[in-house]
Write a structure and sequence with these properties.
Bound molecules: pyridoxal-5'-phosphate
Order of helices and strands: HEHHEHEHEEEEHEHEHEEEHHHEEHEEEH
Number of domains: 2
CATH class of the largest domain: Alpha Beta
Shape: globular
Helix content: 25-40%
């Protein structure tokens, strides 16, 4: 008899976005003339940088000529891209990361979801609340949790991000082995300082734990004092893996290219305490199960590191940050406490009411769709998330409508 992986039955239905869609559709049916503005979803709206498009076209032409055609590429990604990443994103910032430690992939979603495979099933996991749901669900699928009870999975150490702790969780008091951190954070938009991040790296050393650091939004960091990578922190090379993505950096959500950094000095242990290289395990996993990102896409990503590409990509970031600053300024002017929107595309707003009630209010009174914080975890109750990923005209109109509705 073919049997299923029963851990999948523990997963909660993806209630958040389906419920947002249901309520939005219902409102639209009742108000067919009302133009709804969506500030809920974290997807970019601006086209790819011109430099990427040109490189993309050139690479496609190469694939069409016998002399320049390429078949399967290296599973870890082409060296031309990995060298640029190591040099520009790490070494120029004083972080000792080398091309052989970089694994190019088709997304930080896949990598943050797949990485848990190389660790034992009975390790203790620490996950933030609120959280980007992929970390949690992939561990549920792998059988690292118990049942879902009262809004939480048994067996997980939830690290609460609240107004009281400035949305930076405290170090876990329980024994934990694998720690997920994400800064700038989705959904809260919070950032972490070097000193704060150092305490996490020290904690990982003291507990022989490993940090999975999701830096998908690092390109939004403008404050020169904030760390753009965990590898700016002393000792991180032994205890951290970092995930980055071109999705938000350069509008690659539909093009798909990202990378994961696994330093060769990063170690994990057998049950008997014998140290092993996590880099070697991840290399083995990727070369068995993954066949690299297409050559044209890697050439398009490489173009981000040219002078023109960098200028165009940073113009995209500035565009969304301008939207974010406007949303935050106007929400604060209306008396709402906000996090993010600076060094982050997300604004986390304390709504002073249940998050679904605030969602309904914005939809019905302003025709604006947000994301209710409760959908990201128990600690998200009372908050909503507004996203800066939309065209500037739409954001300006949305903000005007919100002002009218709430003032
Ligand atoms: N990590 C976080 C925190 C995200 O919010 C997202 C996307 O929204 C991702 C990873 C996924 O990125 P990618 O498009 O590279 O799969």
């Amino acid at each position: 008899m073919i049997q299923i992986n029963e851990n999948y039955l523990k997963l909660q239905a993806s209630y958040l976005f389906s419920e947002i869609r249901r309520r939005t559709d219902e409102f639209q049916t009742q108000n067919p003339d009302k133009e709804i503005i969506k500030l809920g979803i974290g997807d970019v709206t601006r086209p790819l940088p011109e430099a990427c498009i040109e490189a993309f076209h050139r690479a496609v032409d190469e694939m069409g000529a016998a002399a320049t055609f390429r078949g399967y590429g290296p599973e870890q990604g082409y060296e031309f891209l990995r060298e640029k990443i190591a040099e520009v994103d790490y070494q120029k910032r004083g972080a000792d990361i080398f091309a052989q430690e970089i694994f190019v992939s088709d997304g930080a979603k896949c990598d943050t979801g797949n990485i848990q495979e190389v660790f034992a099933t009975d390790i203790q996991i620490a996950i933030p609340d609120p959280v980007y749901p992929v970390y949690l669900d992939t561990n549920v699928m792998a059988g690292r949790t118990g049942a879902f009870n009262d809004g939480r999975y048994d067996g997980i150490t939830y690290m609460e991000s609240t107004r009281q702790n400035g949305f930076i969780p405290e170090l876990p008091s329980a024994d934990v082995d694998l720690i997920y951190l994400c800064f700038p954070n989705n959904p809260t938009g919070a950032t972490i300082t070097k000193t704060q991040l150092q305490t996490w790296v020290n904690f990982a050393h003291e507990n022989r734990a490993l940090i999975l650091f999701d830096a998908a939004y690092e390109s939004f960091i403008q404050d020169p004092d904030l760390p753009k990578t965990i590898f700016e922190i002393d000792g991180a090379r032994e205890v951290a893996i970092e995930f980055r993505s071109f999705s938000k950096t350069a509008g690659f959500t539909g093009t798909r290219c990202a990378y994961t950094v696994v330093p060769t000095s990063c170690k994990a242990y057998t049950a008997a305490g014998e140290a092993h290289s996590v880099h070697d395990l991840w290399f083995r996993r990727q070369s068995t199960k993954f066949n690299a990102v297409s050559y044209p896409v890697q050439r398009a990503a490489e173009a981000i590191y040219t002078a023109a590409g960098r200028k165009q990509a940073s113009a995209l970031i500035d565009y969304y940050l301008k939207n974010a600053a406007l949303i935050r300024k106007e929400m604060e002017a209306l008396g709402y406490e906000c996090v993010g929107g600076e060094n982050s595309p997300y604004i986390w707003i304390y709504g002073q009411k249940e998050s679904w009630a605030f969602f309904d209010l914005l939809l019905e009174e302003a025709g604006v769709v947000c994301t209710p914080g409760a959908g990201f975890g128990r600690c998200g109750e009372g908050f909503i998330r507004l996203s800066a990923f939309n065209d500037a005209d739409n954001v300006q109109l949305a903000v005007q409508r919100i002002k009218q509705a709430l003032s």
